[in-house]
Amino acid sequence: xxxxxxxxxxxxxxYKVAETDEFLAFLDVFPLKEGHTLVIPKxxxxxxxxxxxxxxxxxxxxxxxxxxxxxxxxxxxxxxVAVIGLEVPHAHIHLVxxxxxxxxxxxxxxxxxxxxxxxxxxxxxAEAFNKL
Length: 132
What we know:
- This protein is an alpha+beta fold.
- It has one domain: 2-Layer Sandwich (HIT family, subunit A), CATH 3.30.428.
- Helix content is 34%, strand content 19%.
- Strands 1-2-3-5-4 form a 5-stranded antiparallel beta sheet.
- A hairpin with a 3-residue loop joins strand 1 and strand 2.
């Protein structure tokens, strides 16, 4: 069982920003930038390209809506997208608010966002998501 499985089951708390029956989006607790969000299928599949075609397409459509909500809340030039697939054996997409290409460098030190800000961000993004 991965950390993402435990988040899906509610065993580990998270800063949820969006959820459907099949997908979940939550703020990364070790973000590159404020608002860094992870988008996952709830079903545990290790490698994103092992997802069924329709699930992969729906995951990206869900991620697009999350990105639009995130962009409306966090000031940035764009929302960057990355799929690395090595850090947690559960398919996931990183959505990172960007001002420059260097903002999505995964070898950069992670930032610390206060819990109160994470809670506020999650609520604001969730509200924006629900309005789309």
